[in-house]
Design a protein that fits this description.
Blueprint: H1 6-17, H2 32-38, H3 47-62, E1 65-68, H4 75-86, E2 100-103, E3 108-109, E4 112-113, E5 121-124, E6 127-132, E7 137-142, E8 148-151, H5 160-178, H6 186-192, E9 195-199, E10 210-215, H7 239-252, H8 256-259, H9 261-270, H10 287-300, H11 304-314, H12 320-334, H13 342-349, H14 355-366, H15 372-375, H16 379-383, H17 386-391, E11 399-406, E12 409-415, H18 419-424, E13 428-437, E14 446-452, E15 459-463, H19 464-467, E16 480-489, E17 496-498, E18 502-506, E19 522-525
Parallel strand pairs: 1-2, 2-8, 7-19
Antiparallel strand pairs: 3-4, 5-8, 6-7, 6-10, 9-10, 11-12, 12-15, 13-14, 13-16, 16-17, 16-18
Helix pairs in contact: 3-4, 4-5, 5-7, 10-11, 11-13, 13-14
């Protein structure tokens, strides 16, 4: 045997310490035996050609290119994309002006990257909503970019159900944008009960243009059903998210035709070209009746996965009375004694935000029918657990806060996605607010609070005058700053948690009309409209 050199000996030692197997041989590098033992893995075929074939097939079937933009498309990713698009009707193929879909590592936001796990995909271009005084019209000004969807790394780590839901959600945004924004149409806004809200500029004059948005109604309990990976207030954020979630619901959620029959009919006619994904339901049967009938049928058959599936569908909206009835029924079932049903029913209860659902799980733990460690292995149970609530959720500030005047009253409206979990865990929620004149120091003009004890749909309105600790009047025409904090307090164990503070700036003008009494027509303006000609 040839003598091993000092360098080779060091390499062997390093390999052993690192846990690798290093094979030393006396044979020449070009020998057949050496080639056989040390040969690198080779893809069985022409990988580059396979990638190109999949790209060509995707374009031939759906009309879109798969564009590599700093990140390569892999064969498995393209196959998953093809499967997701195959479930869409032809109305989603070859959308006007859309050339292709981009593959990137992560979304670019400002000068840095946002986590791809947080944002798995995005639709471009963006748009601004402006009321133009010269034309006396509401306009949606779309950015000067080709319409497209960007897909990021995080998307391809999702399971197949979530993956398809996300892809279909993003395609709904693209469909919306390339069809004149159906989400802004008079018919859709009437169905969804969003209302138009005008937003004056801080330095605006009576004859100047201004921004506008669409505001959800806090008294409406249910907007579009949500994916279980979304926050409960997701569909209330905007008309566009509500529309995209409705499209995903049409494809994926069997009870959507019962919970939102008018939306279902609109989408069937205007978006899906008549295609349906579930058997047509009984038009005379209510959502609650359908849920309860399927729930009882599943219990009778001891079909525990079906019981869970029904509960998951209920969790996509805000149905407190229905939840209360379901959890009472679960309690009746487990009182018959331990059995194989304990685990699936306990985990299913994690989707319910009624406080009795928490007591239901505690009962099973006390009776030693389910160890607490089992709950820690279920993602949904962890998300509503006490640990996640006290260490994370309680810190979240309120979202989408906005000021407006309604019937002479000063209103702050916002979203609180944690309200449901706080109610589940027995906490009351107190919203604290303080109002300052911009640049006047630490002394507030007014301050107040509102206490919510019974949970809610996550959309909250505060009447400033009705909840203030002192009488006040807003200085008109001057920039104001409102600070908002949330205190979660447990009335039994006296634990208290404070959220981060959120701030908004606004100005109140005596001449400004914040809410429209009628639903005005909104017109979309497309810089890429000229590009339509080459696709039609």
């Amino acid at each position: 045997m040839k003598k091993i050199s000092t360098v080779t000996g060091l390499l062997v030692l390093i390999a052993v310490l690192c846990g690798f197997q290093l094979h030393y041989t006396d044979q020449a590098p070009d020998s057949k035996e050496n080639s056989r033992k040390n040969k690198y893995y080779e893809y069985p075929g022409d990988y580059g050609q396979e990638v190109q074939n999949l790209m060509d097939k995707f374009k031939a079937d759906f009309g879109y290119e798969l564009v590599e933009f700093g990140q390569a498309w892999h064969t498995g990713e393209m196959e998953r994309m093809h499967s997701a698009f195959s479930e869409l009707p032809p109305t989603f193929y070859r959308l006007p002006g859309v050339k292709g879909f981009y593959r990137l590592e992560a979304i670019m936001a400002g000068s840095g990257k946002v986590s791809a796990a947080e944002i798995p995909a995005a639709v471009l271009p963006g748009f601004n909503t402006v009321y133009e005084q010269e034309s006396k019209s509401y306009k949606v000004l779309v950015g000067d970019q080709d319409p497209r969807v960007e897909f990021y790394n995080g998307l391809f780590y999702e399971d197949e159900t979530n993956f398809k839901n996300i892809v279909h959600h993003e395609m709904a945004h693209l469909f919306d944008m390339t069809h004149g924004f159906l989400s802004f149409s008079e018919e859709w806004s009437a169905l969804t009960k969003f209302r138009i809200l005008n937003i004056p500029a801080l330095d605006g004059q009576a004859n100047s243009d201004f921004r506008f948005t669409f505001l959800n109604r806090a008294e409406v309990d249910n907007y579009a059903p949500i994916s279980i990976r979304h926050l409960p207030t997701y569909s209330r954020q905007s008309m566009q998210e509500d529309f995209a979630n409705s499209v995903a619901a049409y494809i994926h959620y069997p009870y959507f035709q019962y919970s939102h029959p008018e939306r279902y009919k609109f989408l069937k006619e205007k978006v899906f070209g008549g295609k349906e994904y579930f058997p047509a339901g009984d038009k005379d049967q209510s959502y609650s009746d359908k849920i309860l009938a399927d729930f009882e049928a599943a219990i009778t058959k001891k079909d525990w996965p079906k019981v869970t599936a029904v509960i998951v569908e209920v969790s996509r909206g805000y149905h407190p009375e229905l939840e209360s009835g379901l959890i009472l029924r679960l309690q009746e079932i487990v009182e018959s004694g331990p059995s194989e049903k304990d685990h699936p029913l306990a985990f299913a209860s994690c989707y319910l935000l009624d406080p009795k659902a928490l007591e239901f799980r505690k009962y099973l733990i006390r009776e030693k029918r389910i160890p607490v460690e089992k709950f820690l292995k279920q993602e949904r149970c962890v998300r509503v657990s006490g640990t996640v609530f006290t260490k994370s959720l309680v810190k979240w500030p309120v979202e989408n806060a906005i000021y407006y005047r309604e019937k002479g009253r000063d209103i702050i409206q916002f979203l609180d996605p944690v309200l449901g979990v706080a109610h589940l865990r027995g906490y009351e929620t107190r919203y604290l607010w303080r109002l300052f004149a911009e640049g006047t120091g630490a002394r507030p003009i007014a301050q107040g609070n509102l206490v919510v004890t019974g949970g809610g749909n996550g959309s909250v309105k505060i009447d400033l005058a009705a909840t203030a600790e002192n009488k006040f009047s807003l200085p008109e025409g001057n920039p104001l700053v409102l600070e908002m904090g949330v205190v979660r307090n447990h009335p039994k164990n006296f634990k208290t948690f404070n959220s981060e503070i959120s701030k908004i700036g606004f100005v109140t003008q005596p001449w400004f009309r914040y809410l429209e009494s009628e639903r005005p027509k909104v017109r979309a303006i497309y810089p890429f409209r000229a590009a339509y000609k080459q696709f039609n």
